[in-house]
Amino acid sequence: MNIDAIRNGIVIDHIKAGRAMDIYKFLRLDELDCSIAIIKNASSEKMGKKDIIKIDTVLDMDLDALGYIDPNISVNIIKDGKLIEKRHVELPATLKNVIKCENPRCITSCEQEIPHIFKLTNREKGVYRCIYCESAPKQKSE
Amino acid sequence: MFELKSLIDITDLTPEEIDELIATAEDIIENPDKYREKCKYKKLATLFFEPSTRTRLSFEAAMLELGGSVIGFSESNSSSASKGESVSDTVKVVSCYADIIAMRHPKEGAPMIASMRSDVPVINAGDGGHNHPTQTLADLLTIKREKGHFDNLTIGFCGDLKFGRTVHSLINAMVRYKNVKFVFISPQELKIPDYIKTEVLDANSIQYCETSSLEHYMSELDILYMTRVQRERFFNEADYVRLKDSYVLTNEKLQSAKEDMCVLHPLPRVNEISVDVDDNPRACYFKQVKNGKYIREALILKMLGIE
Question: Is residue A136 part of a domain?
Fold first, then answer.
């Protein structure tokens, strides 16, 4: 299958097969009017199968937060048809308004304007905790 | 030097800062006259969005004994929260009137929001089932005065270890001392949460055991921290009724305890400590109340930067 190479934009690579749409939704790519290619189940030497997203525009967004969804993905920045930067995302130290605290006892449950902020408390296990009530979100579905 | 804008969690304080607070509290106990006018012309605002008797009165008594004044409210119905005002706005307004704020709120994290918005120091006086650092300071002052040290203690926690904020705070404070061991005594449904085991106890290589028997480890304990099963922490009344009488401490059960073991309780109690135990020399829970006032005096002084 042929997908045109992009000249200026971002390629999100090494997405766990089947999770491209999660990232599409998370980055709100549906709100963009540029070309976007979602490649599902591409063959990969390292992963067997993987998903890829190609975005044909330069975005100003917090790509580090992608590390929360899938810490194994890589982000390639393309300029004038050349790869100028390859980033491996890590679990971000803080997540702001990425996930919501679901603890009904948390102050965020009743005061709507408060930002939902989570801090990484255990990098090894990928545990985040709400900075207000310290509860951890439910594990992401695999 | 004491550098703390707000006290939200007991771990906001270093062990050295806790030592400093305890030293000040002990000096207040020894020399009360020295402190009678230390907070003259200063105002403490007690913002209690949830009913409380002892914590609010303890803060108010502490400020009055330091020569300061107190403003505030004791339930959310008598504040603008009943009109729908946010915690942020309430605190922003109150910090225009007061020099320091003590705040209790049923929602976890509310005092942290307050501390982010306030121009004056905020003390967390209890946020839901989450933190209650000044109770922990009262516990620590009592332990220091009764045992003389924090190292090498075996502490039993009994009752509601799942929702008991005072238990969680005291564990967080005690894991920083040497050779401290814990015995967790609770029914299955109210066991200590897993995240405390992994992220606090295991992370600090702390020895602990869990049991459903109040008597089994009694002879090994230096401190027994009793707690009440709190109705307000349950969404389901039936669960509360089923668990509320799980453990009742009596003089008979204390027979195997060490002579110098201390029984602590954050109070109020319902029936988890028989009134007969009040006369037992091991009972320290009313001393704990008094110590709570002294340590709050020390905290107010330190947070206001008054020597």
Answer: no
